[in-house]
Design brief:
Low-confidence stretches: 1-13
Shape: globular
Radius of gyration: 13 Å
Mean pLDDT: 78
Strand order of the largest sheet: 3-1-5-4
Number of helices: 2
Distance between the termini: 25 Å
Number of strands: 7
Largest sheet: 4 strands, mixed
């Protein structure tokens, strides 16, 4: 199984969607709280070579693209086991 096929397996369920640009703030990063996810099929902004951090807990599978994490620095989300923090 190649990295790309593993990535595609991770992306089958949900991929974090890019957020609307926040208003200008003095800090370069604005943490994302309770992100909105879209289906992998709708994630047309992703390409095979893009990096993601994948999370699988039970039947819940999510992908956090590195490009979005780099813009926000921190994503605070929920997993079936409780709150989590994803950072890049």
């Amino acid at each position: 199984m190649t990295f790309t096929s593993v990535l595609l397996v991770l992306l089958r369920v949900y991929v974090i969607a890019p957020a609307a640009a926040p208003p200008q703030k003095p800090l370069p990063y604005v943490a994302m709280h309770h992100p909105v996810f879209i289906s992998a099929a709708a994630a047309t902004f992703l390409h095979d070579e893009d990096r993601v951090i994948g999370l699988e807990v039970g039947k819940s599978v999510k992908a956090y693209p590195a490009a979005i994490l780099a813009q926000h620095g921190l994503v605070e989300d929920e997993s079936p086991d409780g709150p989590i923090a994803i950072t890049w």
